[in-house]
Automatic annotation (TrEMBL):
Principal place of residence: cytoplasm
Keyword annotations from UniProtKB, A to Z: Cytoplasm, Nucleus, tRNA processing
Keyword Secreted attributed: no
GO biological-process terms attached to the record: tRNA wobble uridine modification
Subcellular location: Cytoplasm; Nucleus
UniProt cross-references to InterPro entries, sorted A to Z: ELP6, P-loop_NTPase
Metabolic or biological pathway, per its Swiss-Prot or TrEMBL entry: tRNA modification; 5-methoxycarbonylmethyl-2-thiouridine-tRNA biosynthesis
Any GO CC annotation of this UniProt entry: cytoplasm
Full protein name: Elongator complex protein 6
Source domain of life: Eukaryota
Family note: Belongs to the ELP6 family.
Length: 232
């Protein structure tokens, strides 16, 4: 508990890691706030069913708070006026100077509400942060959002934060590079999925580097393990 996990992918799609953590934490009984900026609810629900988890049932019993970023964007740009007291979590798209404050307020309200009892710490899952840059958010605003989420979820609530970012070594995207490099420095654990340098292979889909940030705890070097993986 209290850890920040970064999911990173290069030359491949690392969304399988998001599906793994979503089903893992729901099965563990954690309260989960899922900020889904990349796909629709039905997409995540279908994959979760294959992994033996019902997202609809988790939403009904209040264990899962799901923000469908695609729907929020459409509601803000083409929908009706927002209800008083319930600002759109992505209202920075309308040109206001509030940054990502509304999105953080949603996370804080979702995970701080209700009695925990014997339930494990809450979890914030984001898929994926790079989309916020594409929508026009400044890198500093995204990093501020992550910082406040870490303070709220990891420190105050003793929960976990898991975020996915895309990185492309060939693309000259300075803003995304700044975001990825900054998050790597602050992560307790990095899961870095990479496509094979040799190209497509039927038996092996890629390799994953597991980087345990022991240097944050005073050790001289981080522990790095590299595995090849195949998605079943």
């Amino acid at each position: 508990q209290g850890k920040f996990t970064l999911l990173r992918d290069t030359r491949t799609d690392g969304s399988f890691l998001v599906h793994h953590f979503l089903s893992f934490y729901l099965r563990a009984g954690c309260k989960v706030c899922f900020v889904a900026l990349l796909q629709s609810f039905s997409h995540y629900s279908i994959v979760a069913q294959k992994l033996g988890v019902s997202l609809a049932a988790a939403k009904e019993r209040g264990q899962l708070v799901f923000l469908e970023g695609l729907k929020s964007c459409l509601d803000l740009l083409f929908g009706d006026e927002e209800q008083p007291g319930e600002p759109n979590p992505l209202q920075f798209l309308s040109g206001g100077s509030c940054g990502l404050r509304a999105l953080f307020d949603l996370v804080r309200r979702s995970l701080a509400a209700g009695e925990r009892g014997s339930r494990p710490g809450p979890v914030l899952l984001v898929d994926d942060l790079s989309v916020l840059l594409s929508l026009g958010a400044a890198p500093v605003a995204v990093l501020d959002f992550v910082h406040y989420c870490r303070v709220c979820v990891c420190c105050q609530l003793q929960g976990n934060v898991v975020v996915l970012v895309h990185s492309n070594e060939d693309a000259e995207d300075e803003e995304n590079d700044l975001l990825v490099n900054s998050l790597c420095h602050h992560s307790d654990l990095i899961l870095w999925a990479e496509g094979l340098a040799t190209g497509f292979c039927k038996d092996v889909h890629g390799q994953i580097r597991i980087i345990k940030r022991l240097s944050l705890q005073g050790a001289e070097q981080d522990l790095v393990q590299t595995y090849q993986y195949k998605i079943q």
